[in-house]
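User: Can you help me understand a structure? I only have the sequence.
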Amino acid sequence: MEPAPSRGVAMGFDCCMSTETTSGEATATEAEHRFRAIIADSSLNAAETCFDEGRLAGILLEECGLAGTLHRLPTEKDDTFRFATAEGDFTVKVSSSFERPDLIDLQTQVMAHVALDGRVPVPQLRAALDGRFTLDVGAGLGVYPRILRVMSYLPGAPQGDAHPSDVQLAQIGRMVARLSCTLADMRHPAEDRLLFWDLRQLGGLRPLLDVCGESTRELARQAFDEFDAVVAPIARSLPKQLLHNDANNFNLLVDEDDPQYVTGVIDFGDCVRTWVAADVSVAFGSQLSRLDDPWNRGLALLGGYLGERTLSNDELRAVAVLGPARPCAAHPRPGVEHSRES
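Assistant: Let's start by predicting it. Here is the structure, written out as tokens:
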């Protein structure tokens, strides 16, 4: 019998990093332990088997009363499907068995909190027939159960496939700010997770220079130097809260014909308690380009953001460094096509 196909990033890093410190402030042993913990919590070394679609269809019919056609979407860690049914389309996600259940609960609770607030369009969770929003669907290669969730499939196309005007970029900025404000009063036991893509960790990512390509190594080195010089000295003054932390241009859905432009914010897998400046830096950095005026798109988005939420001078200084540095933190995501995950 052939083994089931596997999915996941399985990076196998052999370097170290610390958090909220410059690289020289932690001993090599401390940094390595922290690095290994971050890799584990981020499931970067996990290679999970693909969840069988026939089995999944049976579970969806029995537990949720839903029948339809599953279409697998390319993702990093979990198994994600677009599910076409007579009731409409849904997104179905089955978590990796390398991902802790409390992190799945973090994502689920954040989505429910934002949906209840109503200011930001996010996927609506659909309960199973017995009222549960998460279902244990068995074991995988890791130590945790695989967890099934069903949620609404939002309209719109990924913003990365669009060509927004400055006005539309400002609308994106306002939506990112509203999302952060919506989460300002929320807490969760797993919010202080260790996460590779939390830009607070950037100061410890310098060892990744060893695996950067020649074309990006010097830019990455500059980003690390600027982080150490500008952000590290003010790190303790930067406000933190629970945040979405991944408003890149493929996790924002847009519609040219919708007055609000942004029709959805998806993929809550990187939720974490981090700097407010780090959260907006993800959106800001995703808009930077190599055109004649590379800052124009990012500044248009930031202008919209600032119309909804004020940032301190220290936070603005941090954004100016963290935004352009975002690709350094995104480096360990090879071979994953961009597609909407919910």
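Now, to help you interpret it: The first strand starts at residue 6 and ends at 7. The chain has two domains: 52-154, 158-329. Let me know which part you'd like to focus on.
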